[in-house]
Amino acid sequence: MGLAVGSIVYLLFTEITALVPVGEFFGPLLVTVLPINVFLMLYITFCKIQMDDMRPRRWHFILQGIRVLLSFLVVILINLTTDSTMKLLLESVFICVICPTAAAAPVIVEKLGGNISSLTVYLFIANCVTSVIIPLFFPMVEKDADISFLMAFLMVLKKVLMVLVIPLCSALLTRRFWPAMVRWLKTKSNLTIYIWSINLSIIMGITMKSLLHAPVSGWVLVMLCVIPLVLSIFQFSLGKVIGRHFGDSIGAGQALGQKNTVVGIWLTISFLNPYASIAPCVYVIWQNIINAVQLWYKQKYGYLKW
């Protein structure tokens, strides 16, 4: 529903002349709401977290190893190709693989019946790894990419503080000093999903803008839409297969498959071929279609077959 609403609203406020000024005014304001909504989603989710279960697990490091290996292999392919179009497509693969896990992933894991605590630990590990591999790999992809270790580290640190550390600390303080609020939040089981749907609509509007204004040929645009589909199915599936061996297929699937594409889009526009940013934009669509199907299946049958 969020995908459809975002698309329709964007088209209404960009194609109907009378509504264009309204869209131009409210569009940037809605984008600023995104991190606030993520904070609220995680705060509510973290209020339900089990602190005694927050410890690293083997699959956390296995998935990070896979992520680093896949990124490195794509970097090698990029350096071997001399065709500009092929390099663009490979850069789109690279950014969809190297992106860290989305901060909103614990929200989906909670609704699917997974382990929130385990995924929260994974998020911290994933962001630490991201702060190292971004300055390591990006100059290999784009020789002129001016990104230092300190710059990447501070960028990731800011994201971690805003969407992980602060909501987690706020939730722990609430559990300690305002337990009545925690009990009330636990009765609002669908609140985080409503906030997630709002964010999804906003992100879909951004995605539509990228797709409709992309100055690339038709077949390249098709490939930039198909590649994220293949990668999303592959990464969700691989995460689930590995997680199943450790009793956490839900968390591992979301950990490897649900990406923080906002970071990926910014990195691509700043340091790589900006047209490759279409891929992480489209990845949002596919990953959330997968999330929606999983949520529907879980609600209807009470378990996940995949």
Structural class: mainly alpha
CATH top-level class: Mainly Alpha
Helix content: over 70%
The number of helices is 13
Poorly predicted regions are: none
Mean pLDDT: 82
Ends distance: 22 Å
Short key terms for the protein model shown above:
mainly alpha; Na+/H+ antiporter like fold; 13 helices; single chain; 306 residues; globular
Record the SSE blueprint.
Blueprint: H1 2-15, H2 20-46, H3 58-80, H4 84-98, H5 105-112, H6 116-141, H7 149-177, H8 179-187, H9 191-212, H10 218-244, H11 249-257, H12 261-271, H13 278-301
Helix pairs in contact: 1-2, 1-9, 2-7, 2-9, 3-4, 3-6, 4-10, 4-13, 5-6, 5-11, 6-7, 7-8, 9-13, 10-11, 10-13, 12-13
